[in-house]
Amino acid sequence: MVKSEANDLETKKSYWEDVHRNRALTDSGWYQSTPESSLQLIAASNISKKARIIDVGGGDSLLVDHLLHLGYEDITVLDISEQAIEKAKKRLGVLAEKVNWICADITSFSADTSFDLWHDRACFHFLTNEHELKHYKQKAVQSITHDGAMIVGTFSKSGPAKCSGLPVQQYNASTLEKLFSGEFESIENFNSVHMTPSNVEQNYVFCRFKRK
Known about the structure:
Blueprint: H1 3-22, H2 36-44, E1 52-56, H3 63-70, E2 74-79, H4 82-92, E3 99-103, E4 115-121, H5 130-143, E5 144-155, E6 162-163, E7 166-167, H6 173-180, E8 184-195, E9 201-211
Parallel strand pairs: 1-2, 1-4, 2-3, 4-5
Antiparallel strand pairs: 5-9, 6-7, 8-9
């Protein structure tokens, strides 16, 4: 990694540490008590309870709680923020020991295993340049098993232009399919409206892919 990239990652990590240190989960724009769209697509993937799952940018979201409750046994949560991970561990208590926690940026982490299902809600849209997108796609290709599932939930074309004070990239199903074409087959997609804790509507597009 060149020095400028390292500095960029340090700046990004510091930013998200401050966000999670100073903001309660229930005050965060991405907060969902029940991540219905994600759970719907995970169920549609028909993976076994022993399947290897990674939640990219999962931080202190409640998806891991629901997955554990449903009986999934091999869950990894990756987030750039140690603060977010520690908050999730504290919330889960002894159940946190059943989860593999990774503190890293998705564009630079290296998996020591492959995953049957890759889930990303509200992380992908923060990647706003081709360099980051290239690395993200490389990590997905390297990490997801053949015939494995990839679920991406990101701001739609009618979604916000910024989130948590940062610029984001907006997508529709066609632009996502084009971005991941070649290595992934699009299986299904839909738009979803998320209501933030402050009663602001955020428009998302969710896509489920299969690794070729």
